[in-house]
Design goal:
Helices cover 64% and strands 0% of the residues. With 133 residues, the chain is mostly helical. The longest helix is centred in the last third of the chain and has 30 residues, at 103-132.
């Protein structure tokens, strides 16, 4: 059974300023919530890393793979850093270019700069679809 994945080419860009550290810290209910969320995510990532490193792919059950969805960039510390830096660079470049380009050219610029990420997301979605179907 083939499943098709598609992504829209229409993107609406909103110009924004980076929030201050104080504004970002206010987005959490409190420091304890932030800490607990981080601890839970760290535990989940370690669990997935262990599972994937000790179990042959053909032996993994679908339920275990469902737990990996969304965490694929965190399976390796090197990949995590790479993806984080790419996202940071992309956001910075868009914010910087909003000072030099109008709405339409900025939209085209953002589309060009995010094509690699969209292609990676399409491949990932297709891979999950094939494995989990």
């Amino acid at each position: 059974m083939n499943k098709q994945v598609s992504f829209s080419e229409d993107i609406r860009i909103r110009c924004f300023q980076y929030p201050s550290r104080e504004e970002v810290s206010k987005r959490w209910h409190n420091e304890r919530d932030k800490y607990l969320f981080t601890q839970e995510m760290t535990r989940d990532v370690r669990s997935i890393r262990y599972l994937l490193s000790t179990t042959p792919m053909e032996s993994l059950e679908k339920e275990a793979l469902y737990g990996c969805v969304g965490l694929e960039a965190l399976v390796s510390g090197k990949v995590t850093r790479f993806v984080k830096e790419k996202r940071r660079w992309h956001a910075r470049s868009i914010v910087e270019m909003q000072h030099h380009l109008g709405e339409e050219p900025l939209s085209a610029y953002a589309i060009r700069r995010s094509s690699e990420s969209r292609e990676r997301a399409q491949k990932l979605a297709a891979g999950y679809s094939e494995i989990l179907s």
